[in-house]
Amino acid sequence: MPPAYPYDLLDGLRSEAEQAFGAAVDCSIGAPIDAPPASVVRALSTSNAERGYPPSIGSKAFREAATGWMRRRLGVEIDPAFGIGACMGTKEFVAGVPHYLRLRQPSRDTVLYPSVSYPSYAMGATFAGCRAVPVPVDDQWRIDLSAIDPADAARALCIWVNTPGNPAGGIDDLGAVAAWGRANDVLVLSDECYAEFTWDRPAQTILSSGPEGVLAVHSLSKRSNLAGARAGFYAGDADVVHYLKEVRKHAGFMVPGPVQAAAVEAWNDQSHVDVQRDIYRERLEIGIELLAGAGAEPTMPGGGFYLWVRAPDGDAWGFAEYLARRSGVILSPGEFYGDTSGDHVRFAAVQPTADLSAALDRLRL
Q1: What angle is formed at CA 124 by the lines to CA 173 and CA 168, rounded to 5 degrees?
Q2: 249-283: per-residue pLDDT in tens?
Q3: pTM (two decimals)
Q4: CA 187 – CA 129 distance, rounded (Å)
Q5: How many domains does the chain have?
Q6: CA dihedral of residues 67, 159, 345, 126 (deg, nearest 10)
Q7: How far apart are the first and last CA of the chain?
Q8: Cα separation of 104 and 269, whole Å?
Q9: Domain range spanning residue 318?
């Protein structure tokens, strides 16, 4: 049996907040609540693509829209015919890809991933019967390549990086990670789903150093508030993309046709993302006031829409309970993101701005 889903462990705090304030301000999960563009919703409902089976790798229009976005936004050229494939949101890809890769390289049995990170990287290793080996991060929450044991590198099927990072907002040197992967013959999987919300520099991708030996993973869940539609892509090394395309086709992994049509509209529109960036920036600033008012010392992350902060006295659960009872805000204790981060909490700036402001007002009373 897999372990308990971490966010279910917060149900008691949610109940307390609801009893005290009528509703919880749930900042534990990074689930978007703002509306996607109207044109995307229209495409979802009027595509006439629901009857037949959609192409597993993504329609030609889907692949061209996604690679066009990468060209405009990230400055990289990817061949839409050979260098990209669709996935049903990126969580299923993150959790499933080690299994597919191990079928390709059964002599490798290790998945490397940042020690403070999204829990699905380790869970994907578990599902594949692999060793899940966390790699330490530095004081800026960036993966520390120098800390990788050469014996683990020799057994590694892949290494995950996440930039901007969840939960801490760190910005890795993706060129250095790509170079390490090529030097050690380890496939680099770069989860870039928060790239649009990079605050202290331009958005980046590992594909800037070329596609050989790397895959970038992107999603519309955060960028376009389409988490419920499940649309994303993986792009990079043509041989790996071709292999995954064939495996996933046999397994029946297909982004639904109407969702692919909606994704085309979303990738082709940047204006709604610019609006969303401003919204998240404002909510992060309110979150900084909220956490500081409760005794923590938050700072703006390099990217993403999370605040990652050490709890006062290192008591993450105690701090989460205090905020739930005083303001109705629900945080994630740091233990959800790795064994080394139990003294931290994560705040997701995803709730309505008015609700966050009301929670801040309660805390000030």
Answers
A1: 40
A2: 999 999 999 999 999 999 999 999 999 999 999 99
A3: 0.95
A4: 18
A5: 2
A6: 110
A7: 45
A8: 37
A9: 6-36+272-364
